[in-house]
Predict the structure.
Amino acid sequence: MTTALQIGFIPLIDAAALIVAVEKGFTGAEGLDVTLVREVSWSNVRDKLNVGLFDAAHLLAMVPVASSLGLGHIKVPLVVPLNLSLNGNAITVSPALDASIMAEIDGERLDPMATARALSRVVAARRRNGSEPLTFGMTFPFSTHNYQLRFWMAAGGVDPDEDIRLVVLPPPFMVGSIASGQVDGFCVGAPWNSIAVDGGVGRILHFGSDIMQRAAEKVLATRQQWAEKNPQSLAGLVRAVFRAAEFVEAAPNHNEVARILARPEYIGVDADVILRTLQGRLKIDPDGTIRESDRYMLLAREDASMPDPIQAAWLYAQMVRWRQTAFSPEALKLAQSVFRPDLYEAAFGRDSTRQIASKAIGAFAGPAFDPNHIEAHFGAFRVGQAAREWR
Amino acid sequence: MGTESSPKIAIVDESPIRAAILEEGLREAGFTDVVRIDEMQSLLSRIYALDPDVIVIDLENPSRDVLEQMFQVSRAVRRPIAMFVDQSDAASIQASVDAGVSAYIVDGLKKERLKPILDLCISRFNAFSKLQDELDRAKSALEDRKVIERAKGILMRLKGLTEDEAYVLLRSTAMREKKKIGEIAQSILTASELLK
């Protein structure tokens, strides 16, 4: 007997495991007949999951937490039984802003603290000579992009709410917006940074992994109620997507995966651009400079697919830091409970009650993040609304 | 409803026909203050300049995520907006998502006042999809007719048939193969291209 599932996704490379799970028959082998539905906005994916048009979805890591807390939207409890990707974002700036930052930099260009301090000097100089504030794009208020961009610049002393403009832009509009000068930089997932570089309108300043070594980026989400009613389907889906994630990461499969993802019904961009992302070999400068990183995007390796509650806690802390919500210990607990390593472990027949050790976030600034001492996190930073209130 | 009490409604839709249908419906219902936005590049600044009470956006529009920014408390946002319905009104959410439209109310407007606007948008959106379906069907019927005409011409030429005989041949083949006449006609065109 097969079970039909509707799963929503946004055309991004971090949907790879989900797409390949269907295309290579991993879901079929679990008795699941999955229809993938391509969407144009995170709001749509969230709403269609919430009202039950989708059984599961490719979502920004923080959206299930926001939905479960009822932030900015109706309250629908969601759960995350599998993490679709860690990292995968990059911060891209216009060639002009890149030149300004490099003129001010004191240190290595790959050191985010050095670039953030340089940015702070650029911002101060612009204020002195009466220029318009810089504008940065990100994809959604509750997105790792938003928090990584803010974390990075705040570490250098730039207040993202006061010193610059931060705007939401749909990922497909990023490249056009930096080309037309509407934004000076952005933080977005693959393939859009590479497309800006290929178009000669942007330079990749940082990989997301420069900001944080492990950052939950996209997750597989379902309604809590659905997960409770359909444990078999859920477990089958988790296994299928995990196997697909391993398939995607295996080097001999990169070409095939890139061709699948490149198809118009999925991502619809050049297979070569996708291949570079899968290999972690990105062209970061229009002049052809390549930067390699084995941390650019993690799908299955290093336990990337296990939903780790510390990630939810870090993201929640960012919501508080940037005043998207007021802190409460209950909400912190609830945020962590949305990420469900127990459901993940159960899918593989492993003991789901054992304590699973969280892996470090590894942010480039501040003390090691500990959800049990969240005040230390806020107290460590100078910039940010919560930072002021907590000191 | 007088002009004074009519809330300002911004329709964000890249489909000019659908936006026009929506605007007309709203005006007929007495909502006289309606503005259409079809330029997405500067959406947020347009909205700030208009300062509407209600924003209606179609779900095919990637710029929906841009509007989500307006939920935030920040300096950039003058009047925060809220989702269109109460937590309790799940049916409205379902109906609007099904219809492909979403509405937001800007701080200050009473939620009860949004309900008739949203209901109207849902019915107009549904009417538009029906119209679109009919149009698509009519278009494909027209396409079929053209293809059939050309296939008939080929059959008449190659087999020395009259027009009626050519049509009968197409129809009987379609019935035998359980296909549409248009499909049979298309395969004749394809074959004749290949054999050229």
Q: What stands out?
A: The mean pLDDT of chain A is 94. Chain A touches chain B at residues 40-44, 47-48, 50-53, 70, 72-75, 139-141, 161-162, 165-170, 172-173, 177, 180, 182, 323-324 (CB under 8 Å).
